[in-house]
Design a protein that fits this description.
Strand order of the largest sheet of chain B: 2-1-3-12-4-13
Strand content of chain A: 15-25%
Number of strands of chain B: 13
Strand content of chain B: 15-25%
Radius of gyration of chain A: 50 Å
Number of strands of chain A: 12
Radius of gyration of chain B: 20 Å
Structural class of chain B: alpha/beta
Shape of chain A: rod-shaped
Shape of chain B: globular
Oligomer: heterodimer
Distance between the termini of chain A: 43 Å
Order of helices and strands of chain B: HHHEHEHEHEEEEHHEHEHHEEEHHEH
């Protein structure tokens, strides 16, 4: 059985289950204690009543028997015992025997077992060896009574009697049974009531929980006013706070989207600036080559060199334009990722890397197309690379290592920064975190990555994070053929 | 004659009866003075039980019929009642045939009950129902229950039976007990306290119809010959006194009176009759037989 953090088994982690269980346990504990106390009191009362009744029985018998016992009048003794049976019916005497001083039977209410003149059997006498008048033997369901008959300071005989106490024990067991049945019924009723009450009381919590669960999926909605007004004051306040929070989150998301748009524009600006820079560099050389062609175009070697330089410059510009087109072209059908896509990223990152004097290390082990959507994957990896460039120390290195393993495409991006902050690491690894940006300070790059992850059912793993740098792994399962066709 | 008149007119008023009695009395003043005294009627345990309802109805009947206040006097033993009767403290008493023959000089018959149409009954020897015994000889060494040492059926008959064998009860039986009541003899034997008992046959038979649960615990192994039923007797010297005559008249008229018949019904008797003293000669014979052994 597994246990949650509260120490309860997981199956009982719900209040709707836990409260009735606690009620049941409390009821069992209370009813057991009360039942034991009641039975103990009943037993005491029964024993006290039995002692009183047996004392009255022995007193009554003694008074009426002494003259007959002194004369050893068999009939009178028998008649007294026989009549006392009716008078002391409540005592339920099994038998009573009166002996003389020598323990010879004068008469017994059971004359066939204890015939007159016979000596009382030693085994029977041994039963009456206790110190008190009355001894209880619950195993045999009997009370044993003995009373010496004293006349003029002389013991002239004894009364031995055994009373059946099975009725008392039966009464006790009947009461125990009734207590158990009553307690079970009460416990079941209270548990049912507790369960019903808890479910009723927790219904607003379930409502709130369902709205919160939807918000986890990025579908943040407010609770309708009609549902809010139905609740008790406490839950109404809670629901209203939830709605306020939802509205605030909506506004925050809208703001984040706005920021993202701005960031996008900024990115476009940076990209344009980078591209301009990349184009400007060869342009200088190309203008020089043109100038050389103008001046010394007649010279074969100058012409050849200038044309080569122009060709190189134009080739560089063509590659840059092509990779940019590939990266940002929209409205295309999804296509598979290729090694070229990742190699092109190097060109896009290069301006940032150069600016920060970073070394780029590319290890792309892909053979043929990889069955993952090329554009969003490239976009996510590009953002991770740009982020890696941004956090790396000047003169450091940023690397990309990509391969396919166990039906998944994996891309590891490493930098030489100072490692991830704890909250950032949690944000990157948390599933569904792409619903909102991390915070305003952290930029939107990571948020875009997380959004891609959520959309692609990909995940980010922090392989390493420390002073020596960070290694992030972007993992996405390969699409099935059928999935892709759809 | 007066008896005939009395029999014909059981409802005769007290005043008329006293006037009638005064005509036959040589000392009318003395008898008139005694006429206000209550009648004292003794009862022995020959009755089934000391049934309060029976006693109440008997007392009511006798009072109404005699026109005198009647006191019912009960004692535990035959001897006590016999002593009271002999000492003149009772007007009459329902005793047993044995005391009657013991004191035949002093006592005289007033009336004898009729059971099954006869003034006769017998004595039974009983044993516990499951015991295999067929006669007195099988009872040797028993703890034997008698009713009363002055009872004919509850003692004398069995003692005479043993006397015929030259035996005495105390020698034949291991121990004898007196229960002072025929019903008690049945109780003692049925419970197993006594191994055998001597009981009034009339009592046993009536009990068999009233308390079959009790008599079913016993079995009759011998019934004696028929003997004179326990009679009502008075001092012989007072046998024709007006007080005794009133009681005799009331007893003899019982079967003709609705209240009297109710009492007789409770006693399972048919009525009372005047019988000759010779009815009790067989009992006297038994007494002599028993005494011959002890003397």
């Amino acid at each position: 059985m597994s246990y949650g953090m509260t120490g309860w088994p997981k199956a009982m982690s719900s209040f709707a289950v836990r409260v009735p269980v606690v009620v049941a346990l409390l009821m069992i504990a209370i009813s057991t204690a009360v039942s034991l106390r009641a039975l103990s009191r009943l037993e005491e009362t029964q024993q006290r009543n039995l002692q009183l009744l047996s004392a009255a029985y022995l007193d009554g018998l003694s008074a009426s028997l002494i003259p007959s016992v002194e004369r050893e009048d068999v009939w009178e003794v028998f008649d007294t015992l026989d009549r006392s049976r009716e008078r002391y019916k409540g005592l339920n005497v099994r038998w009573a025997t009166v002996t003389n001083a020598e323990n010879r039977t004068i008469a017994s209410s059971a004359p066939n077992d204890f015939p007159p003149l016979d000596t009382m059997p030693a085994g029977t006498l041994a039963l009456f060896s206790g110190s008190s008048d009355t001894q209880l033997d619950e195993t045999k369901a009997e009370a044993r009574m003995m009373r010496p008959l004293i006349y003029q300071d002389r013991e002239i005989g004894r009364i031995y009697a055994i009373a059946d106490i099975s009725a008392l024990m039966q009464e006790r067991s009947d009461i125990l049974r009734e207590l158990i049945i009553t307690n079970i019924v009460l416990t079941v009723l209270l548990v049912a009531f507790g369960s019903f009450s808890m479910r009723h009381m927790l219904k607003p919590v379930a409502t709130l929980s369902s709205y919160l669960a939807r918000s986890g999926e990025g579908n943040l909605t407010t609770i309708p006013d009609s549902a809010v007004m139905e609740q008790s004051r406490e839950f109404r306040d809670l629901f209203e706070r939830y709605n306020e929070m939802t509205r605030a989150l909506g506004e925050r998301e809208a703001l984040a989207a706005e920021l993202a748009e701005e960031e996008k524009l900024a990115s476009v600006g940076r990209l344009a600036s980078g591209m301009a820079h990349e184009i400007n560099n060869p342009l200088g050389g190309m203008f020089n080559a043109l100038d050389s062609l103008k001046r010394y175009g007649t010279r074969e070697e100058v012409r050849t060199t200038s044309i080569r330089l122009l060709e190189q410059g134009l080739s560089g510009i063509r590659d840059l334009v092509r990779s940019t087109l590939t990266t940002y072209r929209t409205g295309q059908r999804p296509r598979d990722l290729t090694a070229t896509d990742l190699d092109d990223l190097r060109l896009l990152v290069k301006p940032e890397a150069r600016q920060r004097k970073l070394r780029l290390q590319w290890q792309v082990y892909l053979e043929g197309p990889v069955h993952v959507p090329a554009v969003p994957v490239r976009d996510a990896i590009l953002n991770l690379l740009l982020n890696a460039c941004h956090v790396s120390r000047e003169g450091g290195s940023v690397g990309l290592r990509a391969h396919v393993r166990d039906g998944r495409f994996e891309a590891e991006i490493n930098d030489e920064g100072d490692g991830l902050a704890a909250h950032m690491r949690e944000y990157l690894e948390r599933k569904g975190a792409g619903a909102a940006p991390l915070d305003r300070r952290s930029g939107l790059g990571l948020w875009i990555v997380k959004r891609h992850c959520d959309e692609l059912q990909a995940r980010l793993e922090v392989v390493q994070s420390g002073k020596s740098g960070t290694v992030l792994r972007f993992v996405i399962p390969l699409m099935e053929e059928a999935g892709r066709a759809a | 004659m007066d008896l005939l008149v009395l029999r014909r007119r059981p409802g005769l008023s007290r005043r008329a009866l006293l006037a009638l009695a005064a005509c036959f009395c040589p000392f009318p003043a003395v008898n008139a003075a005694r006429a206000d005294e209550p009648l004292r009627f003794g009862l022995t345990p020959v009755f089934l039980t000391n049934d309060i309802e029976l006693l109440s109805k008997l007392k009511t009947y006798l009072s109404r019929q005699t026109g005198r206040e009647v006191h019912l006097v009960q004692r535990r033993t035959y001897e006590e009642i016999t002593t009271l009767l002999l000492s003149g403290q009772l007007t009459a008493a329902w005793i047993c045939g044995y005391p009657l023959v013991q004191y035949q000089e002093q006592l005289a018959l007033v009336a004898v009950p009729l059971w099954n149409g006869q003034p006769l009954y017998s004595s039974y020897l009983i044993v516990p129902a499951g015991r295999a015994a067929s006669g007195i000889d099988d009872l040797k060494g028993d703890l034997h229950a008698f009713s009363d040492p002055n009872s004919n059926s509850g003692y004398l008959v069995t003692a005479a039976l043993l006397a015929e064998r030259k035996l005495k009860p105390e020698d034949f039986f291991q121990q004898t007990i007196f229960t002072y009541g025929h019903r008690n003899v049945v109780r003692a034997v049925a419970s197993g306290l006594a191994r055998s008992g001597s009981v009034d046959g009339y009592v046993w038979e009536v009990m068999a119809s009233l308390e079959p649960g009790l008599t079913s615990g016993t079995r009759v192994i011998r019934k004696s010959e028929l003997l004179g039923f326990p009679p009502v007797a008075s001092l012989a010297s007072q046998n024709r006194d007006i007080s005794v005559e009133l009681i005799r008249h009331a007893l003899l008229a019982m079967k003709d009176d609705p209240d009297g018949r109710e009492v007789l019904g409770m006693l399972r008797l048919d009525g009372f009759a005047e019988e000759p003293p010779s009815l009790f000669d067989p009992i006297a014979g038994k007494m002599r037989l028993v005494r011959s052994l002890t003397q």
